[in-house]
Amino acid sequence: MTVYLDITFLLNCLTDAAALYVTGRLSGLPLEKKRILAASVLGGTYGALCALPGLGTAASFLPQAAAAAVLVRLAFGRREAFLRRLLLFFLLSCAMAGALVAGGRLLLEHDGLSVLAALNWRVFFLAGGSCFIILSFVFRGGARHSAAGQLCRCTLIRRGRTAAVTALLDTGNTLTDGLSGAPVLTAHWEALANLWTPEERAVLSRLETDGAACCLEKLGPGFRLLPYQAVGVRSGLLLCFRADEAVMDRRQLGPVTVALSPTPVSDGGGYAALWGGDAGKEVQRNAA
User: Fold this and answer.
1) Running DSSP on this structure, what letter comes out for residue 267?
2) Beta-carbon contacts of residue 268 (< 8 Å; ≥ 6 apart)
3) Of 53, 137, 155, 208, which is least packed with CB atoms within 10 Å of its CB?
4) Are strands 273-275 and 184-188 parallel, antiparallel or unpaired?
5) Are the CB atoms for 68 and 89 separated by under 8 Å?
6) CA-CA distance, 251 to 283, in Å (whole number)?
7) pLDDT given for residue 271 in this prediction
């Protein structure tokens, strides 16, 4: 059988890029095009190597799982819930690869429909149902909110830097800015990695261990403390900053106060920010 390495490389690049893109969107992570492009090219190269004679062992389960881990690490960096994203990417990659193989068989064979007739539907539905159960269990929160239309894309701009995250429209979130009374966006600090300078990123990496007040002393101007109350917390402090511009699903919100959570705001990873304001109207302009 003739193997065309260029076509194999291209197909693997496209499927890896698509799987990484969907993984990032379902995980509520910012999508860095350069990192995803580099990971997809690496995945395409690995797929082409697997097609070479004598390297068939590289296509077995363990090498494939290790390669998937490298691609996820390269595309999204060192973040929490790595195993969840790895599982999602691996399942998506398997599904896309299966779809490509099935489509190729249907196109190349003269009687392509015979492939469907010979398909073991019991195994097909068992595999599909298992994947659905796994994804529903791991990403149940994000899937439920997505189906209810409660997730939206939020883009923040600060000092010329831009970061995009998935935000949950949480009507129960009543956190407001004490200076202006405007709603506050609460986001996991790591999800806004594109907004930070290297010095700020080093300080914020210790936000959970050192606390907001300690980190504020080490940060430059533009940050302040925001008092809040929550269940089990009589009085707490969140580190916050003022975004120059916020866009919620292409709707301009103007400057918005952003509170930084030291831990992820979603247990399932489907979103990385909480917004309790009205996404359809401009918010009040926060005090500087």
Assistant:
1) S
2) 84, 138, 139, 140, 141, 142, 143
3) 53
4) antiparallel
5) yes
6) 11
7) 81
Give Cβ neighbours of residue 101 (< 8 Å, ≥ 6 apart): none
pLDDT at 135: 57
pLDDT score of 263: 86
- List helix spans (H) across the chain: 5-27, 33-50, 61-76, 82-108, 113-117, 121-138, 140-147, 198-204, 207-210, 212-218
Indicate the residue type of 171. T
- Residue that the structure tokens 């940060």 belong to: 219
User: Which residue ranges in the chain fall short of pLDDT 70?
Assistant: 1-4, 26-30, 56, 59, 78-81, 97-149, 171-172, 230-235, 267-269, 278-288
Closest-CA residue to 215 (of 235, 237, 182, 193) = 237
Question: What are the residues facing 233 on neighbouring strands?
Answer: 230
What is the C-alpha to C-alpha distance for residues 91 and 97, in angstroms, rounded to an integer? 10
> Which tokens is 23 given?
């993984």
Between 82-108 and 61-76, two packed helices, what is the crossing angle to 10 degrees?
A: 120
pLDDT recorded at residue 96: 72
Retrieve residue 37's tokens: 């492009």
**Total residues found in the chain within this entry:** 288
CA–CA distance from 86 to each of 26, 131, 187 (Å)?
12, 14, 22
| Spatial separation of the C-alpha atoms in residues 73 and 35, rounded to whole Å | 10
Q: Is 31 exposed, middle or buried (0-12, 13-18, 19+ CB in 10 A)?
A: middle
Model pLDDT, residue 195? 92
Look at residue 120 in the predicted model and tell me its pLDDT. Answer: 60
Query: Do residues 165 and 1 make contact, with C-beta atoms less than 8 angstroms apart?
Result: no
The interaxial angle of helices 61-76 and 5-27, nearest 10 deg, is 60
